[in-house]
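Long-time lurker. I teach an intro course on protein structure, and each term I like to show students one example going from raw sequence to a predicted 3D structure in token notation. This year I'd like something fresh instead of my usual example. Would anyone be willing to generate the tokens for the chain below so I can use it in lecture? Attribution to the forum is fine with me.
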Amino acid sequence: MATALTRLEQEDRYDDGVFRVGRKYGFLPQRSPLKSLPSPFEPVQNLLNELPVWLDDEQTIAGILGQKGRIVSCVEGLKNFSSEVSEIVDMLQSGGTQYRDLARLTQSLFRAYSFLASSYLLESSYHETGAGGMYGRARNRLPATLAQPLVLAADALGISPWLDYHHAYSLGNFVFRDATLHGEDLWHWTNLEMACRFSGTRDEVGFIMLHVQINQHTPALLGSMQDILRDASHKGVAENPAGPWQRLLRALEHINRSRREMWRASRPERYNDFRVFIMGITGNDSLFGSGVIYEGVNQFGERPMQFRGQTGAQDDIIPACDIFLGIDDAYPTNELTTYLEDLRQYRPPVIQKWFVDARLDREATRLDDFISSQPSIALIAAACVEQVTLFRIGHWQFVQKYILQHTRHATATGGTPITSWLPNQIDACFTRMHQLLDKATPENLSPSETRWAMEMRRRLIEREGILRDQRALLEDPTFDPQAVYARNVGHEDHLNV
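-- Reply from a regular --
Happy to contribute to a lecture. Here you go:
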């Protein structure tokens, strides 16, 4: 007799024409993004081609952003394509056989106009960056030429009209250098190029395309989650209940292995070359004041609008694991957790729906009870949480090296406080690891499993001590970033590349 599918197995629930979330594509787009806009939008594409600060790898030929104030005259001379974008959006919303092609085109239009909007508004911040890496003031009025097409495309995709992670800067912005390669070679950051860029440097490309490389492992990640939920919903049916958990752990290990290549892909001292262009409005009053006015957009009127900026925290891997592994139940009740939950709204609606359904499936299958009843499964689940912890600790070390040592701008691109945001989530991982290791009772484990549990607990205690020491240093407003990073001794992320 056929068994009922869990929500996450019904993958047509998470298909918007651009993304189809599940075991085939993971969190990646179901088709590669368009490299450039079609001919009717040639003036926009020409502007994007000339946009980066540097147009060559030797950094000898300056593009539009490399010439102070030039972006203003370029935008003033650009035709307003809002009627053309509106026509495409109308066809998209009518459905039909061209739905996926139109969704892909709408995504590329959103990418184009969000890049131009951020460039126009933040170019002054880039050129007026002062001592200590403090950014200058941004412009806070977006001309109708950019604002109207941007809002039309954003509304059609169900997202905010600001540079985002999924459709614009990262997952919707990759181009294969050699599309004939396969597997990890195809998805390696060295085989990926950006369709649109800000600084134009190899460091920007490596930094952003590394995020795409990481997501090549999400089909295996989500497939193992589906299998685990199926086993949990039909207790006693699975011949090897540990199997899908082991696959989940391997997928997370592959994700961390790819993530660590960031230390090779992009130099910390070059991050500030493009970071200013991906700043959001929310939380950045020093740049935007009360917000940005979108000229000619009737639904906004003349009200200053605020949106969070694109950030790696908008990637879907870690939130998915937080929900699936019960880490989100360990979040502290504070403003930082509120920021985390707010960031989930800055994702395509189908991915937001996947998050909701993942929690519903976890509750409906009583997955937590399933884990607690089997100490060996609880041990593997603890190992999975350790991999999530390592991801966040690695990210925290990136912050220390790439940001704290090169700028005192205290707000992250997503608008969150930079020195307390990640430690808040690391705390939740620590709590969940303790809970799961407590379920992995030694009397019900093999000798090798017992040694594994003991090693995990030892590493957990060491990491808790490191974070405690770093927080103490950060309490001093004049903290030394190098001293903060030095506390990672014995757990340096870059040594595992």
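Some talking points for your students: The beta strands are 141-142, 174-176, 192-194, 293-294. The mean pLDDT is 93.
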